[in-house]
User: Which sequence fits this backbone?
C-alpha cells in the first residue's frame, strides 16, 4: 500500500553518526595512510554522503518504488518502447553466480559456458535477422546504430569511396540522425508520404554516389510495414549505398520477415524491447548488430567463434573430457573498427535475451509477433472509432492516433489524454512522436496484454474524450504530483541537492 | 506460450472485431515474397524447468569469482555488494519501468536519479552529474567529444583540434575513444608513460593551443596515482579541458576530481553495487562543470514544482537530446543505465561516508600488503615505483607470465591480468587488483601459489 507520507530526500534523512554498513576489521598489518599515499592526493575529510540506517534506506527506496508505474503494476502502452512482460525466470537465471560473478578478463578456459551462450546468441540473432554475422558489443540501440554506421564508413573507406551522407526518413527515431552525426556523416532528412512511407520520388532525388547509408525503421514508427522496402533497398544498392534497419520494431516481424531478406545490410536489435530486457527505468539495454558478410570484417572485436579442432584455441586448459575448450574470442580482425566500449558487452542483458528466445523457440517467437500484431490491430479497430488513426485500417505492432481534431474542436491535446489516462490507472502512450503527425498518440500494447485490458483501456479513452476539457487540462488528479513546471526546471537548473 | 494471455477464443473474437479472417491475414501488408516461408531455424522451445536446468549446466561450465579467488581488476572489480542493493534493485516497480518521461508516473525513478546526481556531485566535487552513461569506456569517449565541441576552434584560425591520451589510460577506453573519433577531424596524440605515470614535461610538450582535452586516469590503469593537480594545471595552462577518469571507490580516500580542477569527470561505476557479469551491463558516470551542462550528453533530472506548487522532479534540459535536437543533439545516447544508477545510489546510501572511506582503506591496505608479500620473492617486483591505490603491476623476472597465471588459474586463483595484449613492452608484467573482499589468508595463499609456480619451474 502506498505510503502517503512525504518522501524526503536521502540527504534530509541523514543524521550524523548513523551507519548502515560495518566493515570487517583490517586483517593485514596496517600502515599509516601517510606512508601509503602522498598527502596531496588524500582527501582531508570523508566524502560528504548522507548518514543513514539500513531500515531507513530500505523504507525510503521501497516507498519511492511505489511512486512508479511499471509493467508489473500497470498497462504500459508506450509506443516504440515495447513494454512487454519481463519474465521472472530470466531474472533468476541472470543472477546465477556462474553467470553474474564472471570477471571480463578471466581466461577463456574458465568461461566456456558463457562463451557458448554468447556464441549461440550470435547465431540466433543472425538467423532472426537473416544477416551473416553478429556483434554483441554495443550497449544499447543507439549505440548499435553508431557502431553500424562506423562499420559502414570503414567499409567505404576500404573501398576508397568518400560518401558523406546518411539519409534518414523524417519519422525516424531521433537517435538515427544523432548517430549519423556522431559517426561523422551528414544526416539528410527524407520526407515521407502522408501514410508514413518513404516517398519514392524524394528517395530518387536524394540518392546518389554521395550517400553511404539509408537508415530505415521497418515496420515504421507509424507501425506500418514499408510496402516498397525491397524496391527501396534495390535503389539504395544500385548507387552503391547500404541499408541500415533500425530494429526497434522487430517485435512485429519475428519469424515473419527477416531484414536480411528484405534488403537490409545491417541492423540492430533492442533486446530490452523485443526480447523482454527489462527496461530498468531507463536502461540497461543492449544493441547487438547483425551485418552482411561483406561488412563483417569491420565489426568490433572480439566475436565468439568455435575453436578450430586442429588448432586448439586455449593452449593450456582441457576440460574433464580432455577435449579442450569449445569456444574462444576472435580478436584477429585486422579491418575491425575497434572497440565501442570497454569489455565484451552488456552480457547480463544478453543472457536474458538468450533465455527469452530459448523459452519461445522458433514457433513461439512467431506467436509473440502474431499476438503483438493481433493486440495492436484489435486496439486500433476499437480506438479508431474515438480518435483518427493515421492509417485507419491495419497496423503491425503499434499505431499512431491523432488528437489534432479534438484539439481544434475541444482544445483537448494529446498531452491531456496522456495525463488523464494516468488517473484511470494506465501508463500514457508515447505522445508527440513521430514528429510528422500532429498531436500524435503512439500506442503499442505488446503481446503480453489481455483482451480485457485492451477493452478497459479503450473504455477509458472513450470516457476521457467526453470529459470536461478543463478537467483534462489539470490531469492527472490522482497522482502524487501533477503537471510539473518544466520551464522552471530548465531555467532554475536545480540538478542536485545543495550541499550543506 | 508462456507470456501470452489471449486464448484461441479471445483470438477469434478479436479477429472478428478487426474484420480479419486469420492471424496470417494481419501480415498481409508484408509482401508475400518477403515473408519467411519456413520456420526460423532455432532450437525448440523450453519449459521453465528445462531452461533453468540448461542454464545451470552452462553456468556450471564457468568458474566464477566465488570459486576462483579474484585478483583481477582493470576496470571491473570484485567489490562487495550489500544485500540491500539487490533487494532494492529487484523491486520490479523499478526494473520494469521505462525512462521517466511521464513525470507523474515516474516520481520514484526521477527522485532516484536526482539523488544519484546529488551523490555523484558530492562524491566527485563536480557541479553537475547526468543520469548515467553506458559504461566507463564510452563515457570517456563522450567526454572527449564534449570537450572538443566546447573548445573546438578557440583560436582565430580554426585548425584541427587534438586530444591527448596517455598510455596510463585504460587501453580499452583509449581504443573506444579512437573508434569514436575515427571519422571526425580530430588528431589523437598518444602520450607514452614508460614510468607508469604521465611525465609532466612530456605532457607540456605535446600540448598546444588546439588541444581540446587531456584524459587523465587517476589512479591510472596501472594502479598508480598520477600527480593530478599538476597535470590539471599544465592542461589548463594550455587552455585545454581536463577529463578525469576516476575510480569511485578511491574517492573514499583520495581528493575529488572537482578539487583538483577537472572539467569533466567520468568513471566506471561498476564497483558501486553492480556485479561483474563478464563485463556488463555497468554504469557510466559523468559529471562536469556547470558551464558545460548544455554540452553534456544523456538525461538529466531536475527539481521543480508541479501545478499545485509541490516540489517534484522531471527530466530537464532535454533540448540537448536526440529526441528533440536529432542530428544536432549533443549525443545519440538514449537508453542509459538507470537500474545501475539506482544500485549505485543505494550502495552509496548504505555505505555512507565512513563505510566508503573504510572500504577504500581496506583496498589500499590489502593491496599494499599483497604487493609487499609477493615482492619479497626475488622473481617478482613492482614494475613502477609510484604510490598505488588498489591495483599494481608486477614484473616477472622470468618473463613467463602466461604460464604462471595459467598455473594459478588451475589452482583456483584468478591471479592477475597479463599486460602483453595491450602493452608489448610490458609482456613480462601483470596487473593485480585487491579489493576489500580479499582476506589475508587468500592473499597469503595467492602469494604462495605464485611463488610456488615460480619454484616449480626450476625443479
Assistant:
Amino acid at each position: 500500500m502506498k505510503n502517503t507520507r512525504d518522501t524526503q530526500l536521502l540527504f534530509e534523512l541523514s543524521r550524523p553518526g548513523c551507519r548502515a554498513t560495518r566493515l570487517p576489521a583490517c586483517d593485514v598489518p596496517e600502515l599509516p595512510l601517510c606512508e601509503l599515499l602522498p598527502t596531496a592526493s588524500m582527501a582531508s575529510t570523508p566524502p560528504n554522503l548522507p548518514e543513514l540506517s539500513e531500515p531507513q534506506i530500505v523504507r525510503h527506496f521501497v516507498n519511492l518504488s511505489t511512486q512508479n508505474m511499471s509493467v508489473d503494476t500497470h498497462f504500459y502502452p508506450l509506443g516504440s518502447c515495447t513494454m512487454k512482460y519481463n519474465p521472472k525466470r530470466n531474472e533468476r537465471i541472470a543472477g546465477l553466480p556462474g553467470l553474474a560473478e564472471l570477471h571480463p578478463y578471466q581466461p577463456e578456459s574458465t568461461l566456456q559456458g558463457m562463451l557458448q551462450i554468447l556464441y549461440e546468441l550470435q547465431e540466433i540473432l543472425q538467423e532472426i535477422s537473416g544477416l551473416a554475422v553478429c556483434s554483441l558489443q554495443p550497449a544499447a540501440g543507439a549505440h548499435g546504430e553508431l557502431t553500424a554506421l562506423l562499420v559502414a564508413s570503414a567499409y567505404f573507406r576500404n573501398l576508397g569511396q568518400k560518401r558523406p551522407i546518411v539519409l534518414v526518413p523524417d519519422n525516424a527515431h531521433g537517435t538515427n540522425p544523432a548517430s549519423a552525426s556522431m559517426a561523422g556523416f551528414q544526416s539528410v532528412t527524407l520526407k515521407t508520404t502522408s501514410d508514413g512511407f518513404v516517398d519514392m520520388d524524394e528517395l530518387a532525388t536524394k540518392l546518389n554516389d554521395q550517400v553511404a547509408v539509408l537508415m530505415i525503421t521497418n515496420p515504421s514508427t507509424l507501425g506500418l510495414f514499408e510496402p516498397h522496402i525491397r524496391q527501396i533497398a534495390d535503389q539504395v544498392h544500385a548507387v552503391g549505398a547500404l541499408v541500415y534497419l533500425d530494429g526497434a520494431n522487430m517485435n512485429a516481424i519475428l519469424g515473419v520477415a527477416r531484414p536480411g531478406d528484405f534488403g537490409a545490410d545491417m541492423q540492430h536489435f533492442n533486446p530490452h524491447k523485443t526480447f523482454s530486457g527489462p527496461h530498468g527505468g531507463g536502461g540497461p539495454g543492449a544493441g547487438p548488430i547483425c551485418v552482411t558478410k561483406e561488412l563483417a570484417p569491420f565489426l568490433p572485436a572480439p566475436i565468439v567463434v568455435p575453436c578450430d579442432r586442429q588448432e586448439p584455441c586455449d593452449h593450456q586448459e582441457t576440460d574433464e573430457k580432455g577435449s579442450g575448450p569449445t569456444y574462444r574470442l576472435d580478436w584477429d580482425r585486422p579491418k575491425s573498427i575497434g572497440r565501442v566500449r570497454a569489455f565484451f558487452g552488456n552480457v547480463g542483458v544478453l543472457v536474458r535475451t538468450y533465455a527469452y528466445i530459448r523459452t519461445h523457440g522458433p514457433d513461439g517467437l512467431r506467436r509473440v509477433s502474431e499476438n503483438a500484431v493481433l493486440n495492436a490491430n484489435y486496439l486500433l479497430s476499437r480506438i479508431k472509432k474515438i480518435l483518427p488513426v493515421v492509417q485507419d485500417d491495419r497496423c503491425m505492432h503499434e499505431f499512431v492516433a491523432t488528437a489534432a481534431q479534438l484539439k481544434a474542436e475541444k482544445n483537448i491535446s494529446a498531452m491531456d489524454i496522456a495525463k488523464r489516462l494516468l488517473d484511470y490507472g494506465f501508463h500514457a502512450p508515447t505522445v508527440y512522436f513521430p514528429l510528422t503527425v500532429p498531436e500524435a498518440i503512439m500506442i503499442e500494447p505488446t503481446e503480453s496484454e489481455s483482451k480485457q485490458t485492451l477493452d478497459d483501456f479503450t473504455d477509458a479513452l472513450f470516457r476521457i474524450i467526453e470529459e470536461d476539457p478543463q478537467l483534462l487540462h489539470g490531469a492527472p488528479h490522482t497522482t502524487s504530483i501533477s503537471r510539473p513546471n518544466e520551464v522552471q526546471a530548465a531555467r532554475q537548473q536545480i540538478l542536485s541537492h545543495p550541499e550543506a | 506460450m508462456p507470456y501470452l494471455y489471449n486464448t484461441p477464443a479471445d483470438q477469434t473474437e478479436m479477429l472478428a472485431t478487426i474484420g480479419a479472417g486469420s492471424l496470417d491475414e494481419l501480415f498481409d501488408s508484408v509482401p508475400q515474397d518477403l515473408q519467411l516461408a519456413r520456420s526460423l531455424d532455432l532450437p525448440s522451445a523450453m519449459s521453465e524447468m528445462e531452461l533453468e536446468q540448461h542454464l545451470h549446466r552452462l553456468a556450471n561450465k564457468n568458474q566464477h569469482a566465488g570459486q576462483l579467488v579474484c585478483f583481477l581488476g582493470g576496470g571491473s572489480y570484485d567489490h562487495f555488494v550489500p544485500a540491500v542493493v539487490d533487494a532494492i534493485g529487484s523491486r520490479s516497480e523499478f526494473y520494469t519501468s521505462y525512462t521517466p518521461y511521464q513525470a507523474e508516473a515516474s516520481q520514484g525513478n526521477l527522485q532516484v536519479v536526482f539523488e544519484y546526481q546529488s551523490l555523484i556531485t558530492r562524491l566527485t566535487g563536480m557541479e553537475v552529474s547526468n543520469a548515467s552513461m553506458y559504461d566507463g569506456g564510452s563515457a570517456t569517449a563522450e567526454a572527449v567529444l564534449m570537450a572538443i565541441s566546447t573548445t573546438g576552434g578557440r583560436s582565430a584560425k580554426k585548425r584541427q583540434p587534438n586530444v591527448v591520451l596517455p598510455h596510463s589510460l585504460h587501453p580499452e577506453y583509449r581504443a573506444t575513444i579512437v573508434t569514436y573519433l575515427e571519422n571526425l577531424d580530430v588528431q589523437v596524440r598518444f602520450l607514452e608513460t614508460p614510468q607508469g605515470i604521465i611525465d609532466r614535461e612530456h605532457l607540456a610538450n605535446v600540448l598546444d593551443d588546439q588541444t581540446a582535452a587531456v584524459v587523465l586516469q587517476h589512479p591510472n590503469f596501472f594502479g598508480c596515482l598520477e600527480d593530478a593537480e599538476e597535470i590539471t594545471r599544465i592542461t589548463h595552462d594550455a587552455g585545454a579541458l581536463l577529463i578525469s577518469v576516476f575510480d569511485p571507490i578511491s574517492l573514499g580516500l583520495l581528493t575529488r576530481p572537482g578539487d583538483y580542477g577537472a572539467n569533466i569527470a567520468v568513471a566506471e561505476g561498476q564497483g558501486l553495487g553492480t556485479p561483474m557479469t563478464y563485463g556488463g551491463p555497468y554504469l557510466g558516470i559523468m559529471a562536469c562543470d556547470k558551464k558545460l551542462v548544455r554540452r553534456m550528453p544523456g538525461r538529466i533530472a531536475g527539481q521543480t514544482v508541479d501545478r499545485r506548487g509541490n516540489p517534484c522532479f522531471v527530466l530537464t534540459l532535454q533540448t540537448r537530446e536526440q529526441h528533440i535536437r536529432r542530428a544536432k543533439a549533443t549525443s545519440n545516447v538514449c537508453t542509459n543505465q538507470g537500474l545501475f544508477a539506482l544500485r549505485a545510489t543505494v550502495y552509496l546510501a548504505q555505505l555512507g561516508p565512513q563505510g566508503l572511506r573504510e572500504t577504500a582503506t581496506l583496498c589500499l591496505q590489502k593491496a599494499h600488503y599483497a604487493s609487499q608479500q609477493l615482492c619479497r620473492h626475488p622473481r617478482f617486483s613492482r614494475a613502477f615505483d609510484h604510490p598505488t591505490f588498489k591495483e599494481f603491476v608486477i614484473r616477472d623476472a622470468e618473463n613467463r607470465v602466461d604460464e604462471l597465471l595459467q598455473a594459478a588459474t588451475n589452482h583456483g586463483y584468478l591471479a592477475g591480468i597479463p599486460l602483453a595484449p595491450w602493452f608489448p613492452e610490458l609482456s613480462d608484467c601483470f596487473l593485480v587488483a585487491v579489493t576489500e573482499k580479499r582476506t589475508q589468508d587468500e592473499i597469503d595463499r595467492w602469494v604462495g601459489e605464485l611463488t610456488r609456480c615460480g619454484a616449480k619451474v626450476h625443479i
Observations:
- The longest helix of chain B spans residues 338-375.
- Chain B touches chain A through 207 residues (CB under 8 Å).
